[in-house]
Amino acid sequence: MNRIVPLALGATLSTSLVLGCPAQPPPAAPPAAAQPSPPSAARAPAPSPAPSLGFAVSFPESQSREPLDGRVYVVLSNDDAREPRLQISVGLKTQQIFGVDAEGLAPGKEALIGAKTLGFPRASLADVPAGTYTVQAVLHRYETFHRSDGHTVKLPMDRGEGQHWEEAPGNLYSTPRKITVDPAKPETFRIELDHVIPPIAPPAETKYVKHERIQSALLTKFWGRPMFLGAHVILPEGFDKHPNARYPLVISHGHFMHDIDYFREAPPDPNLKPDYSDRFRLAGYNRIVQESAHQLYKDWTSPKFPRMILIEIQHANPYYDDSYAVNSKNLGPYGDAIMDELIPYLEKKYRAIGQGWARFAYGGSTGGWEALAVQTFYPDRFNGIWAACPDPVDFRDYMTVDVYGHKNAFYTDDYWKKVARPSMRNYLGHVSATIEDASRYELVLGTRGRSGEQLDIWQAVFSPAGADGYPKDIWDKQTGVIDHDVATYWRDHYDLSHILQRDWATLGPKVRGKIHIYVGDMDNFYLNNAVYRIEEFLKKTSNPPYEGEVDYGDRAEHCWNGDHTRPNALSRLRYPQLYFPKIMDRIRKSAPRGSDLKSFQY
């Protein structure tokens, strides 16, 4: 378990903290009888700490007169295309980052990053090649929460950016500058955080697109401070002209969106400078995105498109840009808050039918897991879900780790040969990151599960809270050793495949015909492996049979959604066009007798 201690302000760089932990104490001196001590006058002076390469980061009073808590990063980049803080990722195309915790960092005091500070992808400053780099520092600010479970924790509250430390309003950062680094010539570089990231302007509303935000009583009570839920709402064509119509509600689950970016009323920007998508190996992909968004607008307003309300939920939180839409010991009752507070508010305001037979969900990746989760945990409140490339739905294949059967997450358990477990690949199987890479990357970004990244949010959602109030580690991020007690808790509470199997006698009749799962068989994060597991169970179900669908895209990467007619780069931009007709078919087949199927069909 990672521990956090106050940063030793004023300490020399040679005693910089390692992962927020104090340096190891020196060996104990031998007993006096073993070696007589010389007279004090004859004793040799203690050697001075060897100088080393390092950084000292501070902020002036003009940024804050009060001490600040948070995480201090120093980024080194050899690419001048963007600011260094905008070039950090777990993949191959990343720059170098180091991070230390700062508790009560006062203005003018220095947070120190030195030889023992953990970094990514190079583990130490000593591993940085000599050369000229652009350096930039950031202070990611933490807030203190006094939760209703009795724990006091320090976490980065989302400030409208969707939990991205490099863009979070209120964070301090420095002006990028060139430095020449030579590990053979130790030097301390002092960096002042002379800028603050400004607030983000709220998105604009239109005839079709509305934005909602409510305070959640359930989440406010849990976190001990006001907490909010939001939603982007796309209203159907004719909403204002048919005041007596009531509509089915479709929830698109997924990552935080500042605005609806896949629905564009204006044509593509004629002055848009074409970019290049490394992921899809396509030039001008930004224009393709705008064209697709405008096409949805044209389809949405066409005479034959199904008339329904589509919403995107905003539930960024102190751990991630998304809560996974379930109740959790570390995040609080997000599932109930969404289902019992936000959804009823939206359905009442926008004239939704408000019954389970007329409520649906879909999503990809995080949203795919959430869609299956809400159908599993709230089976009567949804009449079908379409889950594309879902995050691990069976923890025997948690990417490439079996958290129940494996001993170590980083390497195979074989006696003579240890092989690294991969976490990212392309459609050819070429690996760009391992589980160990991803773990160290997140540990550099934040101790105690505070990285705001993928492994840490899974852990925050699935794990019990530790004695310190932070999520219990599923594995040690430095050694990879798995905690099987934590894994057992995961299985019993959030392993969707296990829960469906365990409770099929009661869940089966409620989810019959409602489960549809799609994934590429070359998913970049190996998410297809868990889908194979759940499909194996679903195909064997009886009393009742599941009567749903599981489908795979040949050589398709993340996030294939069931469209065999288009490449993944295009199909991922067409979720409503793909799923709304299927939802309409489901309504016709399953709506209770006497239900209103006419007022919204015009």
From TrEMBL:
Residues 31-45 have a biased composition (Low complexity). Residues 24-55 are annotated as: Disordered. PROSITE patterns: PROKAR_LIPOPROTEIN (PS51257). Pfam families: Esterase. InterPro entries: AB_hydrolase_fold (IPR029058), Esterase-like (IPR000801), Mycobacterial_A85_antigen (IPR050583). Transmembrane segments: none annotated. This is Esterase.
